[in-house]
Design a protein that fits this description.
alpha/beta; binds 3-isopropylmalic acid; binds manganese (II) ion; ten-stranded mixed sheet; Isopropylmalate Dehydrogenase; 44% helix; 2 domains; single chain; binds nicotinamide-adenine-dinucleotide; globular
């Protein structure tokens, strides 16, 4: 098989984690005999510098023609004053690709339990899949920005909620069969519409146990007993906030990958962290979130489940051996961790084929 993958390194630590991700992607494709067509395009702040647009037309058409897109991260102080910020390019890209469901798995690696800010007995067994609605809500509502008054509007339609809920119910069906839908239905009209739409979709999934949780209480429950949750579905902004919170439970924001999916196979894959200007260029960025995003890419856009699992096993093996970046208690540079994972993928693969 052949794969046409677009890489958008972006800004800050984006290019560092993209190099790491590409290294592992190349290693696994060589092993599996997948013909890889990789191309890099300007995006985010780099797009503004290059073409005066965070999502240059040439970049967008390459993305639309690709099987999958990998994004490092965008944004940084350099572009904070721009009329169109790097982040606006990311929102437009998500909308153009119609990737309305953002899957963010938070799975604790046993060997990192002592790196969690929470006590080990509280985090043990944490394995959550956050399904974040990605192309609606406050991010895409009408906006007014004045000196005295500003306004962001929050709109959801029932079909927008139903399609992302369906993805979450399907995921729950394939896991432990529990789904928590998070909203603020005690205050927001959009949340009451959200809750009603989720209940309607539930009728098609009677085997899934559904609970509704208010977002403020969810922020607390996540810290108190994260292992209580399996699949969590929520709207765009709540999902953004709760996934950053959940990431550190597993050790570090640098560990989490994500898949943004729509109705077809094409997806956008990105670690959940940002461009981390505070550590950019220092080799301190944890590449694991980016590398796990590549595993998700192979799983969801290429149908290569075995290859995805090879990467996930290699990440775990290398982490267990202690080859880690500073954020998870190690002293290895980004590329050292990436090389070790790529090598582990190759060696474990060759050993497998030899027996
Ligand atoms: P951030 O995620 O970039 O950083 C938050 C903290 O986590 C920082 O201390 C950083 O050093 C650390 N961190 C992040 N990624 C890490 C990694 N891989 N390894 C080790 N440590 C890591 O969030 P921020 O500082 O609030 O935002 C910086 C910029 O990134 C902003 O412009 C923001 O808009 C942008 N951003 C982009 C994306 C994206 O491109 N998908 C996501 C989030 C934030
Ligand atoms: C994320 C980021 C983005 C978001 C920003 C950069 C627009 O925080 O992917 O989590 O809020 O969706
Ligand atoms: Mn975020």
């Amino acid at each position: 098989m052949s794969l046409n993958i677009v890489l958008l390194p972006g800004d800050g630590i984006g290019p560092e984690v993209t190099d790491a991700a590409a290294k592992v992607l190349r290693a696994v494709c060589t092993l599996e005999g997948i013909e890889l067509d990789l191309s890099e395009h300007a995006f985010g702040g780099a797009g503004i510098d290059d073409a005066g647009d965070p999502l240059p037309a040439e970049t967008l058409s390459a993305c639309l023609a690709a099987d999958a897109i990998f994004l490092g991260a965008v944004g940084g102080p350099k572009w904070d004053g721009e009329a169109v910020r790097p982040e606006a390019g990311l929102l437009r890209l998500r909308q153009e690709l119609a990737v309305y469901a953002n899957l963010r798995p938070v799975k604790l690696m046993d060997c990192l339990a002592d790196k969690s800010p929470l006590r080990s007995d509280r985090v043990e067994g944490t394995d959550i899949l956050i399904v974040r609605e990605l192309t609606g809500g406050l991010y895409f509502g009408a906006r007014e920005e004045g000196e005295e008054t500003a306004n962001d509007s929050l709109t959801y339609t029932a079909p927008e909620v139903e399609r992302v809920a369906r993805i979450a119910f399907e995921a729950a069906k394939g896991r432990s069969g529990r789904l928590a839908s998070v909203d603020k239905a005690n205050v927001l009209a959009t949340s009451r519409l959200w809750r009603a739409a989720v209940n309607r979709v539930h009728k098609d999934y009677p085997e899934v146990e559904l609970e509704h949780v208010l977002v403020d209480a969810m922020a607390m429950h996540l810290i108190q007993k994260p292992s209580r949750f399996d699949v969590v579905v929520t709207e765009n902004l709540f999902g953004d906030i709760l996934s950053d919170e959940a990431s550190v439970i597993a050790g570090s924001i640098g560990l989490l990958g994500s898949a943004s999916l729509g109705d077809g196979k094409r997806g956008l894959y990105e670690p959940i962290h940002g461009s981390a200007p505070d550590i950019a260029g220092e080799g301190k960025a944890n590449p694991v979130g980016a590398i796990l995003s590549i595993a998700m890419l192979l799983r969801h856009s290429a149908g290569q489940e075995a290859a995805a699992q090879r990467i996930e096993r290699a990440v775990e093996a290398v982490t267990r051996r202690g080859v880690r970046t500073v954020d998870v208690g190690g002293d290895a540079a980004t590329w050292v961790v990436a090389d070790a994972i790529a090598e582990e993928v190759t060696n474990a693969g060759n050993a497998f084929f030899a027996c």
